User: Which sequence fits this backbone?
């Protein structure tokens, strides 16, 4: 049975309409996917900017803490020099005391005054030693805080790198999908 030319044209028109509808549906779905990918890209870019800002703040804080550590080390050096001077002074005083002990009868009052001076110096040294201990504890606390901040920065940097790697993988998948869709479109 032969189809008339009108029926043949009608069948081709219906087939063409169905093909147009299928392509339109596919294009609508692809545009929705592209819009979703664009929104995800924007969210990821905002997240990356926020993380970079946070890293910058932590770097400034680490620099501040490093400066503070250097200051405390300089104070420690100064205190060590003062202790050395005080130790020399103490040795001199001890030497003077021994010399005065030999001359106890003639210089009894002078020896008593010298002993009082030595006691005052010992108290001063004890106070300075306590100050140095306190400064050493402060230095240790600052170093621990710096180490904790460095650990947090390293963790955040690792998380940021993972996010960037996932994003790059996703972009590669989208490009592959687009290339496959383009190839499929060119085949049709």
Assistant:
């Amino acid at each position: 049975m032969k189809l008339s030319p009108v029926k043949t044209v009608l069948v081709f028109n219906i087939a063409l309409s169905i093909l147009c509808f299928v392509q339109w549906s596919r294009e609508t779905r692809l545009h929705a996917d592209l819009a979703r990918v664009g929104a995800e890209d924007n969210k990821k870019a905002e997240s990356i900017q926020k993380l970079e800002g946070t890293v910058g703040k932590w770097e400034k804080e680490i620099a501040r803490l490093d400066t503070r550590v250097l200051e405390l080390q300089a104070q420690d050096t100064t205190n060590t020099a003062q202790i050395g001077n005080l130790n020399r002074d103490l040795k001199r005083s001890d030497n003077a005391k021994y010399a005065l002990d030999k001359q106890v009868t003639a210089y009894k009052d002078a020896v008593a005054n010298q002993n009082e001076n030595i006691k005052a110096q010992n108290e001063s040294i004890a106070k300075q030693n306590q100050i140095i201990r306190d400064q050493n504890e402060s230095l240790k606390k600052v170093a621990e805080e710096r180490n904790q901040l460095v650990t947090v920065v390293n963790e955040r940097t690792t998380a940021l790198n993972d996010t960037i790697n996932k994003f790059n993988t996703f972009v590669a998948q989208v490009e592959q999908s687009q290339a496959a869709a383009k190839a499929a479109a060119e085949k049709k």
